[in-house]
């Protein structure tokens, strides 16, 4: 009887303990791209990279992301120079605390009958893992415009959430990962949202 009660208590506690331990330190980058049907103007020629209007281009974080975007643009075929297309970089970062919907304590009652009598047992499962870790979310947007007409030729958006203690929470590492995901298979399928797992 006692062994059955201990086994029931272990089963009750197991999902809660797993819930606390399954939070991954990294997550996929969600990427969405938009562009005109004719993409022949993309991926070649001169392009300059700058902070989007309303974005502080002098901040260290924005400069890290504009540099990462510039490297990716060169990788897909552009050369960084004035007088051609313009890539506007927009950045937003926020920290939030994740929450759990389940109670940290669960109680279950069970009964049994058999040849050796009957009894009622009580199983208690307690989640000792503590609150979920704080997360930091980064939103990166890049808009490629025609330098002369300012018409939008391509737009990409990427969002990425990791634990604050993840190495990818730092600006330098996160910028490289997000820019690489945003320009993967450039120009991408217009209107499609894909999840790209960052390299470890």
Key terms:
200 residues, alpha+beta, Double Stranded RNA Binding Domain, 9 strands, disordered N terminus
| Category by helix and strand content | alpha+beta
Strand content: 35-45%
Using the alpha-carbon principal axes, give the shape: globular
Specify the helix fraction band.
Answer: 10-25%
How many individual β-strands? 9
Largest sheet: 7 strands, mixed
Name the average pLDDT. 78
Biggest sheet strand line-up: 3-2-4-7-8-1-9
What is the rounded Rg?
A: 25 Å
Secondary-structure element series: HEEHEEEEEEHE
Q: Termini separation (Å)?
A: 48 Å
Task: Describe this protein's structure.
With 200 residues, this protein is α+β, with helices and mostly antiparallel strands. It is 24% helix and 38% strand. Strand 2, helix 2 and strand 3 (79-80) form a beta-alpha-beta unit. Helix 2 packs parallel to helix 3 (171-182).
How is the secondary structure organized here?
Elements: H1 2-21, E1 29-35, E2 46-51, H2 60-75, E3 79-80, E4 85-97, E5 105-114, E6 117-126, E7 134-145, E8 152-163, H3 171-182, E9 193-196
Parallel strand pairs: 2-3, 2-4
Antiparallel strand pairs: 1-8, 1-9, 4-7, 5-6, 7-8
């Amino acid at each position: 009887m006692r062994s059955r009660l201990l086994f029931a208590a272990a089963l009750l506690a197991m999902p809660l303990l797993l819930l606390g331990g399954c939070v991954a330190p990294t997550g996929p980058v969600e990427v969405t791209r938009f562009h005109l049907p004719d993409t022949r103007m993309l991926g070649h020629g001169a392009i300059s990279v700058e902070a989007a209007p309303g974005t502080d281009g002098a901040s260290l974080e924005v400069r890290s992301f504009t540099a990462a975007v510039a490297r990716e643009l060169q990788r897909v075929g552009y050369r960084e120079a004035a007088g051609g297309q313009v890539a506007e970089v927009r950045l937003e970062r926020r920290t939030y605390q994740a929450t759990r919907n389940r109670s940290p304590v669960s109680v279950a009652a069970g009964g049994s009958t058999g040849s050796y009598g009957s009894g009622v047992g009580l199983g208690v499962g307690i989640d000792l893992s503590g609150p979920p870790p704080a997360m930091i979310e980064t939103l990166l947007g890049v808009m490629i415009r025609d330098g002369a007409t300012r018409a939008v030729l391509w737009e990409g958006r990427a969002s990425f959430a990791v634990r604050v203690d993840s190495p990818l929470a730092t600006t330098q590492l996160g910028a490289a990962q997000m820019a690489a995901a945003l320009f993967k298979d450039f120009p991408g399928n217009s209107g499609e949202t894909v999840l790209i797992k960052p390299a470890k």
